[in-house]
Structures are given as structure tokens and as C-alpha cells.
């Protein structure tokens, strides 16, 4: 409460369960709306001091692993697609670190303006599923171009996992 003079509610889930996650969020929002007055206009949506929070005030994000896209040098293509849809992607960094966490990327919406909540949820979900489809295609291409090397890497990783006493993360 009182983060820039408004209430911020965050709901997290594992897996890509946007509908279920948003349903939990809306229940929490409904509970607070009975206790606190929200400044809301039917045409503009929620009204707060920061223009980026106008509209539904719904911001969505997903943390995804996309090694195939990165290794096939297709990440710039994904960024261009995201920009057209007013979304962004950042490399994911461990807390209190400036070291990137492998091929993890944080995909998120930049604004909550444009369309209702359901429309925004569907649009974001479709984009994530599109990125997943690109990732799967890039992984297949990587495998087909490097069968021996990838098979060897997998065999070594399995041997280490089967026989090691301590494993690094």
C-alpha cells in the first residue's frame, strides 16, 4: 500500500497459468475494492499519477528459457516482434548480481493501456506461446545441425549426473 500512492498487487505462479493466476489476482483486487476506494473511469480505466499505470493497470511477465533462439542468433527477431506489441525482454540476473542466468529472459508488457483485461491476457499468452514455438523450432534446427556434438553433451551431462556426489547448479 502507498507505493506511489496506489496499491500494487502481485501474483506469481509456476508454469504458464495466466488465466488461473489472473483469477487469483482479480479475487484479491475485488476484496480490496470493497475496503478501499479506487479512482476508476469506465473509459480510461484506473487513474493514478503515472500514465503508464492508466488503463487496466495489468502488467504481465513471464520468465522463459530460450537457448535455441539465442544460440541460433534469432533473439533480435523476437525483440522486434515484442516491440510491435508494446512488450520487452531483458536478460534475467540473479539477485544482487550482475551475472546473467544462462538463457533466461524476462518477457513483460510495457503498458496496461489498450484493450480490456481479457484481451491483454490473451494477447500476452499468444505472444509467449509464439516465442515457445520459435524456441522449439530453433532447438530442432540446432540439433539437426549438430547431432554428434549435442548427443555427446547430453551423454556427458547424464554421466556426471549419475555418478557425481555433488552437483553445481
Features:
169 residues, alpha+beta, three-stranded antiparallel β-sheet, two-stranded antiparallel sheet, 5 helices, 47% helix, 15% strand, elongated
Short synopsis of the structure:
The protein is α+β, with helices and mostly antiparallel strands. The protein has 5 helices and 5 strands, in the order αβββααββαα.
In spatial order, strands of the major sheet run 3-5-4
Strand tally: 5
Biggest pleated-sheet summary? 3 strands, antiparallel
Terminal Cα span: 36 Å
What is the succession of H and E elements? Answer: HEEEHHEEHH
Given the C-alpha coordinates, what overall shape results? Answer: elongated
Low-pLDDT ranges: none
Fold and architecture overview:
The protein has 169 residues and is of the alpha+beta class. It has 5 helices and 5 strands. Strand 1 (40-41) and strand 2 form a beta hairpin. The radius of gyration is 20 Å and the shape is elongated. The model has no long low-confidence stretch (mean pLDDT 81).
Question: What is the fold's blueprint, element by element?
Answer:
Blueprint: H1 18-35, E1 40-41, E2 45-46, E3 61-65, H2 67-71, H3 75-84, E4 87-93, E5 100-109, H4 117-145, H5 147-163
Antiparallel strand pairs: 1-2, 3-5, 4-5
Amino acid at each position: 500500500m502507498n507505493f506511489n500512492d496506489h496499491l500494487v498487487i502481485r501474483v506469481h505462479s509456476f508454469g504458464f497459468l495466466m488465466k488461473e493466476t489472473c483469477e487469483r489476482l482479480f479475487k484479491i483486487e475485488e476484496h480490496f475494492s470493497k475496503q478501499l476506494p479506487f479512482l476508476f473511469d469506465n473509459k480510461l480505466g484506473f487513474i493514478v499519477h503515472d500514465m503508464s499505470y492508466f488503463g487496466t493497470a495489468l502488467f504481465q511477465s513471464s520468465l522463459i528459457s530460450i537457448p535455441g533462439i539465442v544460440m541460433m542468433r534469432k533473439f533480435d527477431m523476437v525483440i522486434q516482434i515484442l516491440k510491435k506489441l508494446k512488450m520487452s525482454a531483458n536478460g534475467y540476473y540473479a539477485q544482487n548480481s550482475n551475472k546473467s542466468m544462462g538463457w533466461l529472459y524476462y518477457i513483460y508488457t510495457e503498458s496496461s493501456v489498450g484493450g480490456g483485461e481479457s484481451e491483454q491476457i490473451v494477447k500476452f499468452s499468444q505472444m509467449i506461446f509464439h516465442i515457445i514455438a520459435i524456441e522449439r523450432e530453433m532447438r530442432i534446427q540446432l540439433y539437426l545441425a549438430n547431432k554428434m556434438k549435442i548427443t555427446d553433451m547430453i551423454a556427458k551431462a547424464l554421466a556426471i549426473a549419475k555418478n557425481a556426489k555433488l552437483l553445481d547448479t
